[in-house]
Amino acid sequence: MPRNSSRDQELSFLSKAADALVRGDGHFREILEIVPTALYATDPIGQLIFYNDAAAAHWGLRPALGDPRWYESWKLYLPDGTPLPHDRAPLAHDLMDGQIIRTEAVTERPDGSRVPFLASGLSVRDASGKLLGAANLLTDITDYKLAEQQEQRLAAILNEMRHRIRNTLAIVQAIALRTLRSSSEDERTAFTARLQALAGIHELLTLESWNRASLRAVVNSVIEPFQEDNSQQFLITGPDNVWLAANKALPLAMALHELATNAVKFGALSSPTGRVRIDWSRIQGNPSDRVSLFWRESGGPLVQAPEHQGFGTLLIERALQPELASAKIEFKPKGILCTLDISL
């Protein structure tokens, strides 16, 4: 389908073509014969006075010029499949209205094949307003329609996948909670929260056809549950035009979730004076572009490096690092600093 940016050029061409054909400009007519887009013209009563090879290919036949019933060899339909009478066809409106008309319809050729098209029609009048004829440009939009159908099928598949992921995570949660009955309430709550963070990022990726997610959207999705009681304690800065592939967005979300959970229990978010700053920036270089994301805590309790690595640290620095370029947690006295480098 023609894009909006080219619409003015298309309509300018149609205006010149219609005027030349109706007024009998032989030179321009020869040029229009070889134009690859279907084009035809009629006199004031709708009799065919010109069509090019592309129009004949569109119709699937070559009607006789001057035949008053030239259009009855094929059928027309609206995009939804409803039959479109020829007296309501685009050219009929062109002859009646005297203005540029854009209509989407479908041609059924004599052999039964169908071609979706976009018609751009225009009538021509003399200085007194007398109707001289009309011309119509038929743009084949088969490829556009196929792409549209594929997009709709993909949306249906993604929607089904989203429901299946939800159901799978719900089953995993039910099994895990039953298995962890002997564990503490904190351990069960932590496990459930991790599953919910994973479910949230899956929802986010579904919106982008599971291809990518914006870094800002990933950050906002993860910290949203932690902002209910700490909304003034977060400062988030960074460019919006940073997109992550699915295999980068998932580990980043899990890393941020672990950092936020730790901050609520032991770090900056455990104190009303604590602050968490999340910022990122792009790093240009070889072998590919990267983005560095920093999680900085301040204003919370004095931080001491743990004697043993906890689950969150192990998850970030070891389990998730293969998918990220690098991950490092520093237990600075004034607050935790985590640096995550991500290949784009």
Walk me through this protein's architecture.
- The protein is an alpha+beta fold.
- Helices cover 40% and strands 25% of the residues.
- The strands form three sheets. A six-stranded antiparallel sheet has the order 2-1-6-5-4-3. A five-stranded mixed sheet has the order 8-10-11-13-12, covered by helices on one side. A two-stranded antiparallel ribbon has the order 7-9.
- Strand 12 and strand 13 form a beta hairpin.
- Helix 6 runs antiparallel to helix 8 and helix 7 runs parallel beside helix 8.
- The chain is elongated.
Sheet with most strands: strand arrangement: 2-1-6-5-4-3
| CATH topology grouping of the largest domain | Heat Shock Protein 90
Can you name the CATH architecture of the largest domain?
A: 2-Layer Sandwich
What's the N-to-C terminus distance? Answer: 33 Å
Average pLDDT metric: 78
| Percent range of helical residues | 40-55%
Largest sheet composition: 6 strands, antiparallel
DSSP helix count? 9
Content-based structural category: alpha+beta
Count of structural domains: 2
Uncertain residue ranges: none
From the structure above, extract its key features.
344 residues; Beta-Lactamase; six-stranded antiparallel beta sheet; elongated
Write the layout of secondary structure elements.
Blueprint: H1 7-23, H2 26-33, E1 38-42, E2 48-51, H3 53-59, E3 75-77, H4 90-97, E4 101-108, E5 114-125, E6 131-140, H5 142-179, H6 185-207, E7 212-214, H7 215-223, E8 234-237, E9 243-245, H8 246-265, E10 275-283, E11 290-298, H9 311-319, E12 326-332, E13 335-343
Parallel strand pairs: 8-10
Antiparallel strand pairs: 1-2, 1-6, 3-4, 4-5, 5-6, 7-9, 10-11, 11-13, 12-13
Helix pairs in contact: 5-6, 6-7, 6-8, 7-8, 8-9
